[in-house]
Amino acid sequence: MQVTPIGTFYGDAVYKYDAPRQGSLFAGHPGRIVLNAGQNFEMALRDLEGFERIWVIFQFHENQGWRPTTRPPVPPKGRDRVGTFASRSPYRPNSIGLSCVRLLKIEGLTIFIDESDLLNGTPVLDIKPYIPMADAFPEARAGWVDEQEGDPWIVDASEKFIKQNRWLVEHLVPDLESFARVQLSRGNIGADIFDGSRRRLTIDENAKKGVLAYRTFRIHFEYDEGGRRVFLRHIASGYSPEELEADAVDPYGDKPVHREFVALFSL
After folding, report:
1. Looking at residues 260-264, what average pLDDT do you find?
2. Domain that holds residue 60
3. Are residues 208 and 110 part of one domain?
4. pLDDT at position 89
5. Same structural domain, 40 and 131
6. I need a surface site. Which of 105, 137, 202, 226 has the fewest CB within 10 A?
7. Does 194 score more than 90 pLDDT?
8. Position 125 in a domain
9. Is residue 149 assigned to a domain?
10. Which of 144, 168, 196 is the C-terminal boundary of a domain?
């Protein structure tokens, strides 16, 4: 069987940890699919723009090999791992992924989408419309997912956090509030949410504070185990003042935004 990509996804997520675990839960993670020219795909796109969502079938191009079991972000009670075929793990025998994304608009051979969980450069294999009547089964049993430990936590944000996040979104940084709400509302604080396996997360259990990393930004928060609440306090740059020097190396090309952000919100 020969499978040939029909196009490529382009977005801000470069590293695996940049991509949300479930794109539909993370608004503000946009990108675009550019289809290959010269294959009559313009005709194939006809009538697609009337759909709110589309299925994107793609290749996990950054993964090598597969694993028969995986540890889900929120494991079922009494188990640490589940079978790969009972999971959304990207490490599969055939490295094929499936995502339901929000369709924003189509311009020529470019499809603009949001709520994606694809990495920049992902080969796209096919596109299909999402049809609620045929594709949505809200009452269907979800196996071990129905047995996941822990009830959702309530995540609130300070006015400062909201103001900082709004500024970053306006400067083309992904929505950090949405990211934090997804990451901190479920999972495994103490024995329930912060279990030590989440490498982007550092916790001070005595002070009941934590820091969640997203690329080169840091989300500072407080939490209350008894009330099952997380309070997003503020956003900080992950760069030190020395690293933000004008002549410093800028491997991610984002230091100009950080400098402006620090100058504005350190006042």
Report:
1. 95
2. 7-144
3. no
4. 86
5. yes
6. 226
7. no
8. yes
9. no
10. 144
Summarised one tens digit per residue, pLDDT across range 137-161 is 888 988 887 776 556 789 999 999 9
Q: Give the integer Cα–Cα distance in Å for 60 and 91.
A: 8
- Tokens representing residue 66 in the block: 């597969």
The token pair at 34 is 């550019």
pTM over 0.90: no
pLDDT at 11 over 50: yes
H, E, C per residue of the chain: CCCCCCEEEEECCCCHHHCCCCHHHCCCCCEEEEECCCCCHHHHCCCHHHCCEEEEEEECCCCCCCCCEECCCCCECCCCCEEHHHCCCCCCCCCEEEEEEEEEEEECCEEEEECCCCCCCCEEEEEEECCHHHHCCCCCCCHHHHHECCCCCEEEECHHHHHHHHHHHHCCCCCHHHHHHHHHHCCCCCCCCCCCCCCCEEEECCCCEEEEEECCEEEEEEEECCCCEEEEEEEEECCCCCCCCCCCCCCCCCHHHHHHHHHHHCC
The residue behind tokens 């055939």 is 94
